[in-house]
Specification:
By secondary structure, this protein is α/β, with parallel strands linked by helices. It has nine helices and eight strands. The strands form two sheets. A six-stranded parallel β-sheet has the order 5-4-1-6-7-8, with helices on both faces. A two-stranded antiparallel ribbon has the order 2-3. Bound molecules: magnesium ion.
């Protein structure tokens, strides 16, 4: 069994800015002020990590209660805004997931900085939530590098399989995805459909690198080489 851990934003979908717009509105509503987002790295960060930073910028303590309060506002905004923004599935995602789902040796799951409820709003809206058996989310830890082993242990709990890191693929669009795969010995797959160029991603030495995931044959030949159509 191989475990495939997909990132969401920039990898499976783009929300057309719905995520960031929802966060901005949540900060206005919860913190009662405008905050300059420029010091915050959004790309590859976790929602809980972002919330901690934003509370600091709003001169509020990053207590558990404040983090959850801000993120509850964010999730309410996201649920209404996701329909209004010009987001989309990224190229080739459904054909690729369909082909992987057919296989009994591929376990599809998520490794994302989204909260589980945010992940469900985004992927549910684009009709791909059902492909993923489980995930590791921002609810599990605010540091992305901690999420790989959490996903691995969840595979054991939910499917009774000990999947070694060399059978685990971390698929994402940012240097942080590559890093969080490497820290637990997983195989890293970078895709340049987010805000990072192919050249920038290459400088972080992923095991595989694609412009996008639209050529399912090429992607499967690389990351699921036993595949025979
Ligand atoms: Mg991403």
């Amino acid at each position: 069994m191989k475990l495939y851990l997909f990132d969401i934003d920039g990898t499976l979908i783009t929300s057309g800015g719905a995520g960031e717009a929802s966060l901005k509105q949540a900060v206005r509503a919860f913190c009662g002020k405008e905050v300059d987002f420029s010091p915050v790295t959004m790309s590859g960060n976790t929602d809980t990590g972002i919330a901690r930073q934003l509370l600091g910028l709003a001169d509020m303590e990053p207590t558990e209660q404040n983090i959850m309060g801000l993120l509850d506002c964010y999730l309410a905004e996201l649920s209404s805004r996701i329909h209004q923004h010009d987001g989309r599935l990224l190229p080739g995602i459904i054909p690729l997931l369909d082909r992987m789902e057919e296989r009994s040796d591929c376990l599809l799951a998520l490794l994302t900085g989204n909260l589980i409820r945010g992940a469900e709003v985004k992927l549910g809206h684009y009709g791909v939530w059902h492909y993923f058996a489980f995930g590791a989310f921002a609810d599990d830890h605010h540091i992305r590098n901690e999420l790989g082993p959490i996903a691995q242990s969840r595979a054991l709990t939910m499917h009774g399989e000990i999947i070694p890191p060399e059978q685990i693929y971390v698929i994402g669009d940012t240097p942080r995805d590559i890093e969080c795969g490497k820290v637990f010995g997983a195989i890293t797959v970078a895709v340049a459909t987010g805000h990072h160029s192919r050249e920038e991603l290459a400088s972080h030495h992923p095991d595989f690198l694609f412009d996008d995931l639209s050529d399912a044959d090429a992607v499967l030949a690389a990351i699921a080489p036993e595949y025979q159509n």
